[in-house]
């Protein structure tokens, strides 16, 4: 996960909170949150190698396919749930969003933006886009529900989900003037803090 995204998420996570990270990868974010903000953190991951990395860092992790459900976590009363760069890989992103907001008061979601101008050029040339935020060819990608910034924000509105804060990143993984002015065209990634209306 890019440094800028980690910093944004860290700023949104309260000190001493209870956090669950869906698609936690190697556990780097949870490790940092535990160290810097004294969080009680749990990860959910499907990849065995990444689970081993979590355990080596002392991060509590459960092996689970997020598409198979999140119901078993409902009684654990999390303060915040995180799904960084994973929601577009799910079969039912809207269901996952709602379940996350049943598990916690707030959730953080990050996603690549298919509306980014380079993606549009690739599509106009008859090719699926390959960018730093969408690095895999169409036949290698885990992404099954790519969307634009506008699509995601409409989904939030349709599902009565409030966007409390949002940050748009440029190809360098940083906030920029252009990506903030017209995120659907210039941002490569959106980072959202959400809650139920």
Overview of the structural elements:
This protein has 197 residues and is an alpha/beta fold. The chain has one domain (3-196): Vaccinia Virus protein VP39 (Rossmann fold), CATH 3.40.50.150. It has 8 helices and 7 strands. The radius of gyration is 16 Å and the shape is globular.
Draw up the topology in text:
Layout: H1 3-12, E1 18-22, H2 28-37, E2 40-45, H3 48-56, E3 60-63, E4 78-84, H4 93-103, E5 104-112, H5 117-124, H6 149-158, E6 161-169, H7 177-181, H8 183-186, E7 189-196
Parallel strand pairs: 1-2, 1-4, 2-3, 4-5
Antiparallel strand pairs: 5-7, 6-7
- The percentage helix is 25-40%
Which stretches of 5+ consecutive residues score pLDDT under 50? none
Number of strands: 7
Largest sheet: 7 strands, mixed
Instruction: Indicate the structural class.
Output: alpha/beta
What is the name of the CATH class? Answer: Alpha Beta
What is the correct CATH architecture?
3-Layer(aba) Sandwich
- The strands making up the biggest β-sheet line up spatially as 3-2-1-4-5-7-6
The whole-angstrom Rg is 16 Å
Task: Please trace the helix and strand order, writing H or E for each element.
Answer: HEHEHEEHEHHEHHE
Number of domains: 1
Report the average pLDDT across residues: 88
Task: Note the gap between the termini.
Answer: 29 Å
Looking at the structure, the CATH topology is: Rossmann fold
CATH-assigned homologous superfamily? Vaccinia Virus protein VP39
Beta-strand percentage range = 15-25%
How many distinct helices? 8
Question: Please, what is the oligomeric state?
Answer: single chain
Write a brief caption for the model.
The chain has 197 residues and is α/β, with parallel strands linked by helices.
């Amino acid at each position: 996960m890019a440094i800028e995204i980690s910093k944004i998420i860290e700023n949104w996570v309260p000190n001493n909170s209870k956090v669950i990270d869906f698609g936690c990868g190697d556990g780097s974010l949870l490790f940092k949150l535990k160290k810097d903000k004294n969080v009680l953190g749990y990860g959910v991951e499907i990849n065995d190698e990444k689970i081993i990395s979590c355990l080596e860092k002392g991060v509590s992790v459960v092996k689970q396919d997020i598409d198979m459900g999140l119901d078993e976590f409902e009684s654990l009363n999390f303060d915040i749930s995180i799904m960084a760069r994973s929601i577009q890989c799910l079969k039912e992103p809207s269901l996952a969003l709602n379940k996350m907001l049943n598990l916690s008061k707030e959730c953080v979601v990050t996603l690549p933006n298919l509306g980014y101008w380079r993606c549009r050029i690739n599509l106009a040339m008859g090719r699926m886009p390959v960018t730093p935020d969408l690095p895999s060819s169409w036949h290698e990608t885990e992404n099954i529900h790519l969307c634009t910034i506008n699509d995601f924000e409409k989904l939030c509105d349709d599902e009565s989900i409030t966007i409390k804060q949002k940050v748009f990143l440029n190809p360098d993984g940083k906030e920029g003037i252009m990506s903030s002015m017209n995120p659907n065209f210039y941002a490569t990634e959106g980072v959202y803090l959400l809650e139920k209306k």
